[in-house]
Amino acid sequence: MQRRYVTVDVFTDRVFGGNPLAVVLDGAGLTTQQMQAIASEFNYSETTFVLPPRDVAHTAQVRIFTSRIEVPFAGHPLIGAAAVWASELESQGGPRCEKLLFEAAVGLVPVKILRDRDSVVGAEFTAPQALSIGASLSPAHAAACLSLNPAEIATSVHAPHVLSVGLPFLVVEVTGRDVLRAAKPDSAAHARTLPPIGTDAIYLYCRGARPTELHARMFSPLDNTVEDPATGSATAATIASLAERLESADTDTVWRIEQGVDMGRPSLLLGRTERRRGLVSAVHIAGHVVAVMRGEMQLPDP
After folding, report:
1. 98-155: per-residue pLDDT in tens?
2. How far apart are CA 60 and CA 70, in angstroms?
3. Residue 251 pLDDT greater than 90, yes or no
4. Which terminal CB of the chain, N or C, has fewer other CB atoms within 10 Å?
5. Are residues 227 and 152 in the same domain?
């Protein structure tokens, strides 16, 4: 049996930047084992499968796999799948897509389509869950995971701690751009430290020229991703946490996050947080999407 796929680069406006993603357009009929095998074959940080929705009021069901496991939520797979699926529907004569509603394992994820005139150029998702704050970690343990000195972990705003809006990450602020550049994942320290606190990945960042500008990296060697070029779910959780620390109780804030620069896959993530009565009521992450490849895969008949 054949299955169609499209690969895209997400959070970039040019080919070979951003975070690569494979989108399998007709995932119906595939078993979980087949999806995992396909994701392992592509060997990207994630592969997305689009299936018919369980509820016809929704756009589609989306399942997301790393090369090792299925995950309930991830940012760049949803943005990439939305741009690809909107383009696919319109190319088949369907109506112009403005908003999609995806069924993900974590829940419903609204996605808005971004356009340049009539062309689909990207998408913006709204995080499916409110910010949750998990376990904290000492600067020494966080530094060991990142091959840094404890003094290079910034703690004036927050300690290293697990954050999630649908997928948990240990979020660590470091003291500057040079420190961010020098960081390296220590797989043994990751294995000792992260699973007991409920995650397998570290998102580290430093401040840019403005408080709402960040530079970031993400390491997840336990999930076969030494470094991720762009991580929408971790970015969403991080800016939600930072937005709750702003002085104004009711404000909408625009964020700009650069990631992937230090691994040669520059990515730009655009965030928006909405804060009401001192709490973040919604967080959005947007990015451009560029098509790279299109093809068909031949799978064994069941």
Report:
1. 999 999 999 999 999 999 988 999 999 999 999 999 999 999 999 999 999 999 999 9
2. 17
3. no
4. C
5. yes
Cβ atoms of 49 and 63 closer than 8 Å:
yes
Counted domains in the chain: 2
> Do residues 224 and 182 lie in contact, with contact meaning Cβ atoms separated by under 8 Å?
no
pLDDT in tens, 224-249: 999 999 999 999 999 999 999 887 76
Catalytic sites, residue numbers: 46
pTM strictly above 0.90: yes
- CB 212 within 8 Å of CB 220: no
Kindly state whether residues 245 and 280 are assigned to the same domain.
yes
